[in-house]
Amino acid sequence: MKLDGLRVLDLSMFLPGPHLTMMMADHGADVIKVEPPAGEPVRNVGYKTDDGVSVWFRNTHRGKRSIVLDLKSDTGRSAFLKLAETADVFVEAFRPGVMDRLGIGYEELSARNPGIVYVSISAFGQTGPEAMRPAHDLAIQALAGTASLNLGADGQPTNPNMPVADIAASLMALSATLMALLKREKTGQGDYIDMSMQDALMAWLPNVTGPVFAENRAPDVQNERSFGGYAFFRPYRTSDGKYIALGGVEHKFVETLLTALERPDLIPAAKGPPGPGQQPVKEFLTETFLQRTRDEWEAWFNGRDVCFAPVLDLHEAFHRPHVAAREMLTRDEEGNLHIGLPIKFRNEPGKLDFKPPELGEHTRDVLRESGVPEADIETVVRGRK
């Protein structure tokens, strides 16, 4: 696999860092999850399968090895530093300054291992006036401006249903890590990556910053291109209380649908700019889509060149035939469901190792591989300082 022979130490918790390192494990990296004595918190967060493993943990920690170290103890810290000498990548996601206080900051690790790629994922980055501010995904979306774009039926901000700050940081940190590893092939020198979740999220906004950059104003959400201002770019309710979505404003889609619905007179308005001028088209489509069920509309649209989709719930989405064909829903030998591999190589494809590690399952093996003295290993395992 692409990352065979690469050793990754993962000290991060929750979603961004563990998701990043899981993708590396899926493609051959030896990912060592360094857990505190209490374990990764998501081991006990949310729904669990019959074997007692949380779905969240299973889908962020597959294929990893788990060791337990108390980094506040001299022996635990010494064992970690020995382990870091063997690593290619180190990932952490604490607030700025925590790693330095523990004696395992970048300066310390790179002095021992100049080739290490050190990844720090934090809410707001290592510098700036809000660097120390505590936050999870929702607060970051609020400060990045994206929560203000996510309005409910009452026009008020509502909880975003996707942790996009978390995942944006995960994917950008993965890209940065691979860039650093590629450069290291030429120089032998690693690097330090300061990955801000807010920075990552704001970098994902080129298609919605038009009003901000061009007209020096906030978006008028209901009338903007990407948020429902176009009649052909929004959801509509159907007769069974479900929804369908039109997702493309290209002229060919407008002409095809409105001609088929015998309202070609609305084509000029639908081709116009987003905003109030689209209202007659929205009203017509609202009334029209209420005349059939969601599934009846899906059958009606079949074969028509219109950017259309039924709005599926998450259960329906994961059980869609196309998702099965792409192997994005997989099942292990015990019958547990897993999210599949999104990165698909023709050569050297990734491989899912379904078994999530038990807490500290690999502590002895990993520390022995790293040259930690046997007496220190026993001290670490028994939890003595």
Describe the protein.
The protein is an alpha/beta fold. The chain has 2 domains: 7-203 and 355-382, Rossmann fold (3-Layer(aba) Sandwich), CATH 3.40.50.10540; 233-318, formyl-coa transferase, domain 3 (2-Layer Sandwich), CATH 3.30.1540. Helices cover 37% and strands 13% of the residues. The chain contains 17 helices and 11 strands. The chain has helices at residues 16-26, 55-61, 74-84, 98-102, 106-112, 137-144, 164-187, 197-202, 210-215, 251-260, 267-270, 279-289, 294-301, 314-318, 321-325, 363-369, 374-382; strands at 7-10, 30-35, 65-68, 89-92, 117-122, 191-196, 233-237, 243-247, 308-310, 329-331, 337-339. The strands form 3 sheets. Strands 3-2-1-4-5-6 form a 6-stranded parallel β-sheet, sandwiched between helices. Strands 7-8-9 form a 3-stranded antiparallel β-sheet, covered by helices on one side. A two-stranded antiparallel sheet has the order 10-11. A hairpin with a 5-residue loop joins strand 7 (233-237) and strand 8 (243-247). Helix 1 (16-26) packs across helix 7 (164-187). The longest helix is centred in the middle third of the chain and has 24 residues, at 164-187. The radius of gyration is 25 Å and the shape is elongated.
